UniProtKB/TrEMBL annotation:
Residues 212-445 form the NPHP4 C2-like domain. CDD domains: NPHP4. It comes from Carassius auratus. It comes from the Eukaryota. The gene is LOC113107208. This is Nephrocystin-4. The lineage of its organism: Eukaryota, Metazoa, Chordata, Craniata, Vertebrata. Residues 598-749, 756-847, 859-942, 947-1042 form the NPHP4 Ig-like domain.
Amino acid sequence: MQCVRWCAWSLFSDPEGPGENVCLHLQGGALPNPWGVMVYSASTQQTNSGKCVIKFKFSSSVEGASCSTALNVSHRETSPPKKLLSAPQDERILEPMASTQQSPRGPALSLSQLVATSRYPTMSHTVGSPWQQQLPSLLSPSPMASAHQLSHVERPVAGSIAHLELSVQEREGNRNEEEDEMQELTFTPVHAPVITLGTHTAGSSRSTSRRSLAQLFSSGFPQILDTQNQVAEVLDASEPVNFNPQREEADPLQANTLILQFLAFTRVPQAGVISDWPRTVHFTFQLYRFPPVTTERLKLLDPERNSKLKSGSDYPCVLSVINKDGTFSSGCPGLQLQYRVDPQFLKPGERGWFLRYLALHSLQIDVWDSESLMLIGSAAVELKHMLRQGRAAVQVNHELEVITTEYLQDASFASRHDNKHSATPAINVYTTVKGILHLRLGNVGGSVKNSQSSLDLPPSLSHVVQPSDAPQGFAGGGVPALTVLQLNANNARRARRLPEIDSELARLLQSTMREVGGATLHQQAEAKEVRQRKIDRMAAVRQLEEQKATPPFQDSSNITRHRAERVQHSRDLRVIEAYRERCKAQEITNMLSQAITTKHTLYASLGTAEFFEFVLKNPFNVPQTVSIECDDPELCVMVKTEEWRYFKELTKTLTPLEEEMFHVKESTQTPQVYLRPKESVHVPFKYQTFICGHTFPLQDMKGLKTSRSPQMAQKHLSNTINAKSIKVLFRGEDRKPLAICQVDVEPMPHVVDQTFRFYQPELTFLKKAIRLPAAWDDTADGSATLHVRCSDHNVICHTTNLTPGEPQDVYLKVPGSPSPQIRKFFITIFTDPWLASPAQIWQVYVHYLQRMDLSCVCGTLSWHSLVLHGTQAIRRVKCYTSHPLELQVDPGEVFALPAHGVQDVCVGLRALRPGSRFFYLNVVDVDTRQLVASWLLCITCRQPVISKAFEISVPVDGGKGSNKKISFTNPYSSSRVFNLRTDRPDLLQFKEEQFQIGGGELYTIGLRFAPSQNPGMEEILIFINDKQDKNEDTYCVRVQYR
């Protein structure tokens, strides 16, 4: 609960006693309040300094209780979110919104907002020490952030998130009716803000029994051993970690082998799915800046075959790798992944940032159903227990709740506005636990052979690029193969054939060779035919001639061939000579430009600004106005002195700084600098990119590794920016280059702090707002602002600067794509004014599905048809649904989808609960495990008319339940067959689910109510359907568990 506005009222402040009507002014904004908690103030223009008025009636004795009750009701969900009242001063006032559950909701199709709660800055390559860097005020750690768990949309008890669409408020003050220009209304477009909080539901305590744990760890999982083959020290996940950065950095074992062992998965009973769901799973995650990982398919082994556990108990199912042929692996159970982090993998100075990542970040793991390729849920695990703190090896076991988001009510989200009020009903959103993931983490220390790698940051001069004054060139002489490796590549080159250098010349020479080759073959064929004819004619006199071979030079065909070769060689020599004359000037210019070229390498990652200074010297005795030209917009000159000073202080670069150093040419926007004779200046540059590859392959399990050996993560750079080389030309007044700076950009993967997944109908815009944590404390100078950038230029991403203390939202507008494509992009969030290093990097997935709206009656089976289009090749596919007990598919088995064909898929819907819900239907290629098509089914279920109602009492903790009977009379004159259904099959079972009675006869329905562990009341519906599963009657049974 958060205090929105507050007021103080003393019952006995008035000497004459309290009046009947009381009018109080509510205080709001960034002001202290009696409770000392965060105060929320709407960003609106009001005439009374943001104050609101609340009116109520006060009376004594019994009336006081009723009036206070009525006052409390105004803070509940039943009251409208915004209500305009009339004050005595005839001013319009706005009643405060006391609960976020009253807020209008946003797009109801953006499901499963899954994020991780690491709210700490990522690695910056320009800060002196990762431990001395001040945490941004917005992302500072709070006592509530110690769990570092997965973040979802809402919490079920406190801080429940509502989906908001538009909040329109009228602007105060009188408007001039004669104005022609329309006045814009003050409003804040909020689209279902996703709050980055924890995910564990309040009071949730799921723990595996000791018997299940004993059986689980006796399955033979591989042990985590140190370099001395000793079992790693086992840590308790519930105990705090005493972290000492100095001890970690001084550890002699500089190599760290991070081990992730996926041991087992515990199913949690779910409504609408079978008891053994899921059967196979796989996981996706990204650790640090390693490539994203999609694991192999894992089978959930049922322990009932070898144990006496009850079928209804929540027992862990051991995971086993599935081979390519569908068989189970014969090795150790579970899946083990290893990542080696050593000085060869880390950049200079990165070790401290890696330890910081382990100490403060959490790893988000997405759990997928490998058969249907549907997301089961997500889990988050703290990585701080992987810090060894001087120990040889450590390990820790975790039981992680796999959580997802459920939506049960879909009201119309069309925004409306009138002169009196604007309100939209909220959507019912909550989190649910889908299962328990048993995970073991470990870290094994290792020694490094070559310990000369630098573990500290480079000196400050590394940000200064100084051109070399030494003469560069090659002294001459031979260049043997062994000497080439020892010479500088800039000074020595091995001669290559001209066709290998110039592709145009190679194509020209190759075409002439083909022509000559064809003519030679034709001449050889003619010579062979003439020779054979001569042999036949002279067969009679051949014995009289001398048996002597004809010399090669006397063969006419050989003479012709040699003559053609000489002609071709002459032609090639003329072509090559013309080529050399054409390229001579260019090659000489390139060789001369190398003498004034200075190379500098940047190791850049997404969103991180890389700063360096280039020392530019005027070699002439006359002053020069040098123009700085660069064709890459991501590399620019810092023309603002404030920005230059900020980066110099950030990188601790001790070089001179000048005010108003550059002049920007208006026509070309090219910066220019004035240089005196023989003068040298430092030119500041900044390289920063927000563009990253967005190609996301479909869920394809074909390329996964199936080796049982531990999979070592290789140093392959995926999910990174593009490598490139940029040239910066410093041209004098005569347009000739004075110096050239060649910047080689080496991409480095970035750390992903949080991951969001949204589901959206195809070819429609996704509008979403992600709300940042409320721990916003303004800095002393008031310069802390929020900036966001997106890696996809087609995605609109922005934020609004509000008063300190106000909740900050990041707004997204994502264009649509065809189904089943997935759009992937990154959002970088900055809290510093010059966007030096991102405070957080978010990874966003938008799954596009085909939408279909279905309407049905609760408990009644209705069939609908979908059209499935074939792809370019024939496929063997199968349909999967998210709720197989409520959604049937025909055909339900594997069938052939013809190429470019059309297949009708029939969907049988029998919803068991009224309201609006969302179901998913996936069509999966069973051979390649690819997603062929995907539907988002928006279900609107109406409750049938209840004809009879009953009420019974069932004891709690009795263990036996209760047996009851109700009578049913066939209203027809003929014999009929009836089916019995219920919306709570977990609480009610029928003696016979189908029966047949004659016309007008009476039948007794036997009911079996299951026992409950908690007291309370449940309403259970009994559906009596006909043979076609159409509803005939509906009974309601109210069960009191006492």
